[in-house]
Specification:
Elements: E1 8-9, E2 20-21, H1 28-36, H2 39-59, H3 68-82, H4 84-100, H5 104-125, H6 134-155, H7 162-187, H8 193-199, H9 206-218, H10 227-286, H11 290-324
Antiparallel strand pairs: 1-2
Length: 337
């Protein structure tokens, strides 16, 4: 079993802890569905699944397409259910704008805070002017974190003891393994915020920070030099801040895109659903082919459900990101898939 797959205890005395690190392992299909897949493609797959379900209900005799009254009642209920999406869109826009709008003093303070953080990272990593790309910026911090971790075994005193040395080596191995995984993912990442954020999901969680602080407080006499450990603690804090910052930026952008998509889909849904609602009795009486009538009836159901599918596809990714970045700093909840 590799270091990445082993649990990393957050205690410095070798005892089992209630807070352990487990690398998130999942199938590529699940990750594509929850995170990496294009949201429009996910919504399309959900829509196809709904269409197949409606056809299955017809085959089972539970969807009487020839009964115009039943079908129009269903359409009326679904069309009425799409009206609250206007409220959802307004609420999303209000949420996004509340985070982006502000007066000059507030905006200046936020800008100066970001610049100060960027300079702190540059000073500690000795990287000069840091990259503007979120992926490249994270890679600078991850590389510096791995570098400081590599120095820890050499910083131990000669009389540190085999048990402490093994614990430090295990900590370093797990941290370096995570760093390699994240660096490989960041190399393939594009400029966008999501690619950078996706690379660190499930990696470099807060218990590394807690374990490093425990080493410093309880094992300070085991080190000849504490500088690498202190810099590692500071870098892990920077990494946590950067990850949460990029998560905030990404969620704001994703909510804005979701709001726009709901407007694009919602208007045709209301118009198309309304037209089907008033015209389906005539269509049912005119169309003699049951296959064609089934396609029209099932297509109408799918059309009215489109806003729900779009909302579900985006909500899946936002909720997954929120769950996998729930840890911040020294506070580490259980790993969540």
């Amino acid at each position: 079993m590799s270091a990445r797959d082993r649990a990393l205890s957050t205690t410095a005395d070798g005892e089992e802890s209630q807070l352990t690190y487990e690398a998130i392992t999942e199938s590529p299909l699940k990750r594509w569905l929850l995170l990496d897949g294009h949201r429009v493609a996910i919504a399309g797959l959900l829509t196809l699944g709904l269409y197949a379900a409606v056809v299955a209900l017809y085959v089972a005799g539970l969807f009487p397409i020839g009964n115009a009254g039943t079908v129009t009642t269903l359409y009326g209920s679904l069309v009425g259910g799409t009206l609250p999406f206007i409220t959802i869109v307004l609420a999303i826009n209000q949420l996004v704008l509340s985070q982006e709008l502000g007066w000059t003093p507030e905006l200046r303070s936020r800008f100066e805070g970001m610049i100060e953080f960027q300079r702190d990272v540059e000073d500690l990593t000795e990287s000069g002017v840091s990259p503007s790309s979120p992926a490249a910026f994270l890679d600078v911090i991850v590389a510096a974190t791995a570098d400081r971790a590599e120095r820890l075994p050499d910083a131990l005193a000669s009389d540190a003891g085999d048990e402490k040395r093994r614990e430090i080596e295990r900590f370093v191995a797990a941290l370096e393994s995570d760093g390699e995984t994240v660096s490989d993912a960041l190399e393939d990442a594009e400029f966008g915020t999501f690619e950078a954020l996706s690379a660190v999901l499930g990696h470099h969680q807060g218990n590394y920070y807690h374990a490093a602080r425990t080493f410093r407080e309880e094992w300070d006499d085991a080190f000849d030099e504490l500088t690498p450990l202190e810099e590692l603690i500071e870098l892990l804090g920077f990494l946590a801040i950067a990850r949460q910052t990029f998560k905030t930026l990404y969620v704001q952008h994703e909510l804005a895109v979701l709001s726009r998509m709901l407007l694009y889909v919602g208007f045709p849904t209301l118009v198309g659903g309304g037209l089907l609602l008033v015209s389906y009795p005539t269509i049912a009486a005119t169309v003699s082919s049951s296959t064609l009538l089934l396609a029209i009836a099932a297509g109408g159901v799918v059309l009215v459900f489109l806003p729900f599918m779009v909302l579900l596809s985006y909500a899946l990714r936002i909720a997954t990101i929120a769950a996998r970045t729930a840890d911040f700093g020294p506070f580490v909840p259980r790993a969540s898939n």
